Amino acid sequence: MNTFLKSTYLILIAVLSLACDGSSSNSGKIEPYSLGDYRGRNVSSDSLVGTWVSVGKGEINYSSDILDAYEKYSSKEYFVIRSLDGSSYQKASCHSYFYDIQIEEGGVTSLEGIEGTFTNNKSFLGERKTDYQLEGTPIGDYSEFGHERFQMVKISDDVKSIGRVDTTISGDRFISDDAYCFTQISRRIIYENREIDGIYYEVDYVVGVDGEYQVSMSEWEQNTVDAVVNMFVQGQDFSSVNSSDTDFTINYESSFSHSITFSASDMGREISGDIEIELPSY
After folding, report:
1. Per residue in 9-29, is it b (16+ CB within 10 Å) or e — as a string?
2. Confidence at residue 24, expressed as pLDDT on a 0 to 100 scale
3. Residues 85 and 101: beta-carbon distance below 8 Å
């Protein structure tokens, strides 16, 4: 199971345990992200090295003994591609630090399970297909079937970090990390289960930093009865239902920058911080 879909599988488990008394929402829809604001920049065609923007959309079916779900989503991701030795590349991942880019015969390229083709080292078209089955999970025998499509453009030859994550733990331990990947995702998920049957909407933000860990935040939209917030930061999981103990605030966002404040606490654990993302300028 690739890392992106594994995180969604964990969300299914969390939702089943946290949203048992919730109701569904049937308003709104998932709008696709666009590359319109990022095209036309003057970038080098000599290599893949630089800062990239990706937009994606997909449909995924999940099935288990006690829970079935159908997801439709749109995503936008900012990331850096760096060169290791002049002939091989790595993509900054929002889930696992840097990920090797596999360039195969015929020009087909694989990056984080996405297969496609680069054109002039400036753009990319690809897709990811999933057919996965797992036995004996906490929600029974489990399977995923999906099809996702992606478009990417290089917007800069810069390989510096695209932002920072500043974290304070228990009020006195401060950690500052460079960010090399940032993803925002809008999901529409239909659950078929007697406890949480219905349509739910979710927003996710995930940041990949240079310390080989991720910061991820997700929230069910407020028009559901139970507002569920899940957070993973500094290797720790937090969740809350209709509570301010675990929460995040989008202070500002545009096509090129994002500012997010987050905090989480439970059972003596306290953590808070700020995320600042800024894409390279022209």
Report:
1. bebbeebbebbeebebbeeee
2. 43
3. no
